[in-house]
Amino acid sequence: MALTLTLSAFWGGNPVAVKAGLRDCPPLRLGWMRFALGGLVVLAVALLRRQSLRAESHERGALLGLGLLFSAQLAFMNVGQDYTSAGHAAVLMSAYPLWTSVFAHFFVAGDTLTVRRLVGALVAYAGVVVVFGGSLAGGEAGSLFGDGLLVVSSLLLGARQIVLSRSARGIAIEKLLMAQAVVGSVTFIIGSLLFEMEPTRYTPQLATALVYQGVVIAGFAFLLQTWLLKHFPPSRVTTVYLTQPIFGVGFSYLVLGETVGMELLLGALLVVGGSYFVQRQG
């Protein structure tokens, strides 16, 4: 429980680290740096565990597909956060259990949307609408655009859970993470070279943000999360993770000094409450 709650706090701080990094670096460039750092951590762990990273012929399709899906999800997230706040990102990204449940209803045998789970999904979606309403009420066109991109990123994150469940079973976690790092680095470098002309400011803030995203999150948090899911019931782990938007909103206020309005707090509570009923078993 202590480890899961700690990881939830780390994940909640990730949008804050992304937003801090975007002050000095454009989104796609920030993304490939994050992928590269995470890949180095995964490589080090694989060497220590003597885990081969060679992709077998039957694994390559799943690894490539997962890498491309994760790259698209992170691209929408980074670019979206360039237009909106870290608090909005923390709430909107935490709505992914809603999308996972919807996809699972159609693509995972036996994982149907019961009445209770459907009500929970609607409550979580109401939280997303409340956050959007705050942007509309404030007349923040840029924030509204960024929030829209984050919803797409959250949807892709939900789809990624289904892909992992259906296509990536039996593949070592180090291979999965390394595929994401390699495919993500290549696609983001190409995208950055094509579309990003602004310079990078190499500041202590950028270094801290990159270490947090690349080493703490993309490296150790992913590995520890996988260990938890292997040794404890997923429903228990996921339930604790529902605290992420609360941590995210709090960190956005403490670290970045962002304003936390009532619509953001209400949106976070609705997403947490609805997602709990979506994820709860039985």
Helix/strand/pairing class, anyone? mainly alpha
Globular, elongated, flat, extended or rod-shaped: what is the shape?
globular
Q: Specify Rg, calculated over alpha carbons.
A: 18 Å
Q: Estimate nothing, just give the exact number of structural domains.
A: 1
Q: Tally the helices.
A: 12
Look at the structure and give the mean pLDDT: 87
| Poorly predicted sequence stretches spanning 5 or more consecutive residues | none
Strand portion:
under 5%
Q: Strand tally, please?
A: 0
> Element order, helices and strands?
HHHHHHHHHHHH
- Sketch the major β-sheet: none
Calculate the terminal CA-CA distance, rounded to whole Å: 21 Å
How helix-rich are the residues, as a percent range? over 70%
Quick structural overview:
By secondary structure, the protein is mostly helical.
Structure in words:
The chain is 80% helix and 0% strand. The protein has one domain (2-99, 141-258). α2 packs across α3 and α5 (96-107) crosses α6. The model has no long low-confidence stretch (mean pLDDT 87). The chain has helices at 2-22, 27-49, 60-81, 86-93, 96-107, 115-137, 141-167, 173-195, 204-231, 234-241, 244-256, 262-279. With 282 residues, it is an all-alpha fold.
Fold blueprint:
Blueprint: H1 2-22, H2 27-49, H3 60-81, H4 86-93, H5 96-107, H6 115-137, H7 141-167, H8 173-195, H9 204-231, H10 234-241, H11 244-256, H12 262-279
